[in-house]
Structure formats: C-alpha cells, structure tokens
Amino acid sequence: MKRKNLTAVLLAIAMTAANLTTGTGLVTSANDGGVTFALGDTSGDQMVDAKDASEILAEYSRLSTNKEAYFSGSRAEAADVNKDGRIDSSDASDVLMYYSYVSTGGTADIASYLDTLKHTYGRGTTATSTAETTSADTTTTSAETSTVTSAPATTAPAVSTTETAPATTATAVSTTGTAPETTVSTASATETTTTTSATAPAAPDKVSEIQLSNTKCTVEVGEVALSANVTMLPPIAEDKREIWISSDESIATVDGQGWVTGKSEGSCTITVISANNPDVKANIELTVTNTKKVREISLDRNALTLEVGEGALSANVTMLPPTAEDKREIWISSDESIATVDGQGWVTGKSAGNCTITVVSANNPEVKATVEVTVTGGTTTASSTVTTLASSTTSADSATTAVSTATETATATASETTTQTATTTATATATTTATTTVTTIATTTESATTTVSTTLDASRVSAIELSVTSIELSVGEMGISYVTMLPKTAVNKDEIWSSSDPKVATVDIYGNITAVSEGSCVITVRSADNKNVTADVSVKVFPKDKVRRIDLSATELEIEVGELGISWVTMLPKSAKNKNEIWTCSDVNIATVDQNGWIRGRNAGECIVTVYSAENPEVKADIKVTVIAKAPLYSYIVEEETNSEHTAFCTLFPKKAKGSFTIEYVIMSTNGSVQTIKTSALSVPPLSSYTAYLKGETDDFEVSSYLINNNTGARARIGVYRFFDCGKGCESQIEDINYAFYLVDGLKD
C-alpha cells in the first residue's frame, strides 16, 4: 500500500474514533458462549474486512470511555489483532491493511500476513512516542502511539490533520515523514484533543459536503442498481472515499460503491458517509417494490351454469400485473359433491345445487377470485339396477324399456357411482334409456344404484399447449410460440390471436409476434371452436440497443485452489451499445472474481459467480463454481543435490503454464553483498519445474525470485526465501507461483 493511501486510511480511522478519550482497552477473559472467533473476524462471518475494523473501533470507543466491554472471550482475543493486550485503533488499522491486501489478490491468513510484515520490514508496536508537530504555534504533547510500517524505505512528507492555528494545544493525528512508518496518536486522558468546530474554517482539502444526483430511488426485489451518483466537495478534497450503510438490510443491502440490492418490499434509508470526514453524510430514501408478484386476478366471468355430468371452463384467468412471473393457479371447490374443479379450472357438475369455485394465486395466496357455479339436473344415458321391496316377490327378465313402471327420482353424477332412494308409484312418468333388471319385493320403497358415464366431446378443442409461455424481444424483433390444439381429434383447430397492448407488441393471425416498443404485454391465443379455451404468452420488449440477455460459454466451472478460470460472456442483442459487465461472487472465501470475469479459487467449496449487465442490472447470468483442493505448488530444497558448494532450489510450474520464461534470482547475503543470476530461456511445457543452484557469500542469505515472460517482457515476483544453516534450511516468507504466472500472462487454457 502506498504511503499516501495508508495515511488516508489511518486518518479515516482516527476521524471515526473522534471525540474519544484514551482508555486502557485491555483484553480480558470472559464467557463468550463457547463461540470461537478467528483473529480479526469479530463479526464471525469468516471474512476479515472493513466491517470488523468498524466493530473494533466501536469496542475501542466503549473501552476508552470506561463503558462496559461488549466483546468477551475469544471475540476479545480476535479483536486484539496485534496481540499487545489491548483493543485500540492500531488493531483496526491492521484489519484494514489486511483487507486491502486480500482485496488485491493476497491469499495468506491475517496472522501470517502480519508476521511477514514484522519479520520482513521490522514492523512493530511501541508503547509511547512523541507526536511530531507541523507548526511552531503547535505544542507537542506526549501521546500513546501505535506505529504501522507501510513499506520498506518509503519516504513521504509529514502530514497532520490539525490545522495550523494560534493557541492549538495538541496534535491528534500525525505521520512521520523521515522514516518508513505512519503514526496514529491519541491524546492522553489528561489532555484536550483538538477537533474542527463549526466556527473554525475546515481544511481546504477536507470533505465538507456530499452532493447526490438524486435523494430518492426505487428498485425491484432482486434488482441491483446504483443508488445515486456522489460528488464530494470541495473538488480539491483528496480523500473522497465513501462509506455506505443501509438502515434495514432485510429490505435492501448496499455495497462499498453504492450499489443497492432489493431484498424485500418496503422502504429504508441508504446513507453515504465521507471516510475523510464522517460528520458529513447524505441520505437516499429507497423504496423496494415487487412487480413480479401477483396483485390481482381478473376473470372474464363470475357465474357459470351447467348440467349434471357436464364439464366447462370456469373462467378465463388473467394474473396481474402482466410483469408477474409466477402465474400458477390453485383451484378449489367449496362443495365437491356439487361440482369438482381440476388444476386448470375445468369444472364438472356432480349433482344439482350451488357452490363456489375459487382460483388462488400460488405466488401470492392472499389474492383470489371466485366463480358462482349452479348445477342443474338433466337427461342422462345410464345403466341402472333397481331393486323394489314388496310384500310379494316377482321376477322380470332384463329388458330395454322406453317407459318404466316406476317413477324414479335420482341425481346422476358424471364418472361416479351413487346410491339413492326413490319413491315408486303405480304410474311411471320418468323417461330413461336403460337396461334394467327389476326384482319386486315391495310396493312403496325403491333402493337404486345408478352409474352415469360422461365423455367430453372428442371433436371439440378442450386445451391448448404452447411451445413457450414467455418471450423476450428487442424492438423490431419477431418471435413465436407454437400451438398444439388438444385433443388431436378436434375438428376445428383454428386460432384467434390478440395482444393486451399492441403498442408494445403485435401479433398476426399466424401467431407471429412483433416487438414495437419497450414494455410488457400478454399475447393470447383462443380456440375458434371453443372460445373458453385460451393460452397466454408473456412478452417483454427491450430497447433495440439495450442488453436483455447474457449468454455464457460455461455455466459451471471447476478450478483448483489458486488457479484461474473464466466463462466467456456474450451480451445480447449484438446491437446493444453498452456491454459493460459487473461481476460478483457469493462467497469470496471460496473464490474471487475480477472486473474482467477471471475467477480465482481460494478455498475448497462451492459458490456462485454472477455477471450483471452494467446498463441493465436486471439482466444477469450465474456460474456455479466448484473449487477443489490440490497439492500445494511451492519451491523447495533438493536435499540430494545440495552440498557445501551450493543449494539446489527447485521451483514447480503450474499445470496451465505455457510460454518462454526466464527466472531471475537476487541473492542478498548478510554482509550486504547482492548477486543476481538469470536462467536461460525456459520452454514451458515441456519443462514442469526448474532447479537453480544458489550460493550466498555468508552462511545465511535471502533470495528473491522473479518470473519474466520472454515474449512480452512482463515481470512478476515469485517469492522471497530465507536460507540458513549454510543453505541447508529454507523458510518461505512470501510465495505465489500461480499468481506470478498469471501476472505475466503465462497461464493458458
């Protein structure tokens, strides 16, 4: 990290902790409920990032004002990053430095990273120091100080956050300009910390105002959008970093660049804060809507009359709004002894009477609509067996009669067997066509079982099948959903097509859909033979030059830890002007993705990498990434080839490495001498490794190795190694062979 950037980060920390008086901040043991927190990860989300730094600063604030500590047990130990026995801004600084390191591709854990800084650059913590002043009018005071070394041999001009003014009593934050370290100082409890008041003029390079392009924003559930464009004022302010916060993350979340993601319907406030001056902030009122949710059901009728055994469509259903995606229907009958209904709304009369048929949205069960159904009796074709009880018994052969000798009162139910009781008189008036077997036992009571079979007319259309039920088009494009009229035995299969909004899309008599303008509509096909039978196609029209779909070369990737993979992206239509991409990863602990879509495996596991259209964030595509563990790729001493004359040091090459390379070794002995040796051109493959023979002028020496692409001249560090015991022992301080090959464009699929 450059000195200037590190100073800005530490300055933001100091400003965040402004108005705090110094306390001990000592780490104490306490019961933490048995939860173990990893070093630096105070939030327990398995990531060390700015959120943890913020929590550490908040704990430091509590301890510094003698309030009860919130952290306890392993969480308190996790917050004490530098292990100096206290929780303070130095720990938060270490967390931010490590977060910056990881965000730029670093793979070491935080303990190893801090240990490397300590041993490589002599980084450490001092108990007290004297803050350096920037003006003769400023009085130097003793302060408790944490020092952080940003890089070896880096020199920067002195920087102080205290403005030069008469009678200033203390310097709250200062940086040393003559040594490679940055100092954050907090005045002791007996001294006064100088802060900028409302009456004192602000530093000219300090943020004093935030302007927003808008203060209100509306997004859809699941949509990703930029909340507002931010302008930090004055223009000469150097540190214009932003901190973003959501008042309710169950409604919407916001990332570090102000991109919000709708989570659920509702309203919340998105706040942007100046990292340079946390007192300066601005709010965006965010409303999250869900137009994909069903709000209303429209029916073409609310009453239906049919006869016993007859079937009919209860009503044509339209789920609203047209943008609703899940239009599944749930159908219910209030009395199935009168009428039943299937999953498509087809009603069958069972017995005379009235009932209510209800259609419910599966997407939003609170939304429903009803059809009042009346079932009447009618003439049926039946096969009946009638037994009559009488004081004497007579037998009759099976016969087909047009007029029965009994009067039957019965209710016939289609495709169902029912047992009914009827009254018999001497004179028959009911008309039936039946095959009847009668045994006379009595003259007054008749017990009858009637079976009625009803078959739909196979010559008429009863259902429509579509090849697709939703279509996305750009303005000017055409599409079609192919139709199948059922049953196949239907005689008249003519179609009637219509559009709910011809201004958005039109349809011709053959079902060809033409996109007219941006928006959504519903294209309906109806049977000309049976107009109760319909099917809908949801149509969404995009501008001609706007991205509406993302195609990927692969929707699943398997990569090894430390290796890279990519799925090539095609933004459609090809006429789209803005084809910029936004990449995100569901779990950066498993894999990371850069702005060009290159995915690097970090730890074994699975995650989802998503690419969004920057122009139209509603359009996205997902890649399932599986990261698998592999044998570590490292350099090592070849013991059988190492002797008093030299150390045989072998470096392994990645499997995907390809090209012509040179390795440069810089040998630094403890007596101060420096030697540089280079290999000849190495062709990879066939070479899978290289062994160099190294020797320093002293028993202990350090080697830095660099990879050079002979075709491009690109150069990257492979690692830094410390050799001891006359070169027989080796300690790797920093090494990432895969990343070095990646940086010089030496990895090929």
**Rg calc:** 40 Å
Count of discrete alpha- or pi-helical segments spanning 4 or more residues? 6
Given helix and strand content, the structural type is mainly beta
Query: Kindly state the mean pLDDT as a whole number?
Result: 75
Distance between the termini: 32 Å
Question: Any overview of this molecule?
Answer:
Residues 1-31, 121-201 and 379-454 have low confidence and may be disordered. 9% of the residues lie in helices and 41% in strands. Helix 1 (3-16) crosses helix 4. Strands 48, 49, 50, 52, 53 and 54 form a six-stranded antiparallel beta sheet that branches. A four-stranded mixed beta sheet has the order 7-14-13-10, with no helix packed on it. It has six helices and 54 strands. The radius of gyration is 40 Å and the shape is elongated. It has 749 residues and is mainly β.
Quick gist of this model?
With 749 residues, this protein is mainly beta. The radius of gyration is 40 Å and the shape is elongated.
Primary descriptors:
749 residues, mainly beta, four-stranded mixed β-sheet, 9% helix, 41% strand, disordered N terminus
Sequence-ordered SSE layout with sheet pairings:
Elements: H1 3-16, H2 50-64, H3 73-79, H4 89-103, H5 110-121, E1 128-130, E2 142-148, E3 159-160, E4 174-175, E5 182-187, E6 209-212, E7 216-220, E8 224-226, E9 230-233, E10 242-246, E11 252-254, E12 259-262, E13 266-274, E14 281-289, E15 296-299, E16 303-307, E17 311-313, E18 317-320, E19 329-333, E20 339-341, E21 346-349, E22 353-361, E23 368-376, E24 382-395, E25 399-403, E26 416-423, E27 431-452, E28 463-466, E29 470-474, E30 478-479, E31 483-486, E32 495-499, E33 505-507, E34 513-515, E35 519-527, E36 534-542, E37 549-552, E38 556-560, E39 564-565, E40 569-572, E41 581-585, E42 591-593, E43 599-601, E44 605-613, E45 620-628, E46 635-637, E47 647-652, E48 659-669, E49 674-678, E50 682-684, E51 689-694, E52 701-709, E53 715-724, E54 729-735, H6 737-743
Parallel strand pairs: 7-14, 16-23, 29-36, 38-45
Antiparallel strand pairs: 1-2, 2-5, 3-4, 6-9, 8-12, 10-13, 11-12, 13-14, 15-18, 17-21, 19-22, 20-21, 22-23, 24-27, 25-27, 26-27, 28-31, 30-34, 32-35, 33-34, 35-36, 37-40, 39-43, 41-44, 42-43, 44-45, 46-47, 47-51, 48-49, 48-50, 48-52, 52-53, 53-54
Helix pairs in contact: 1-4, 2-4
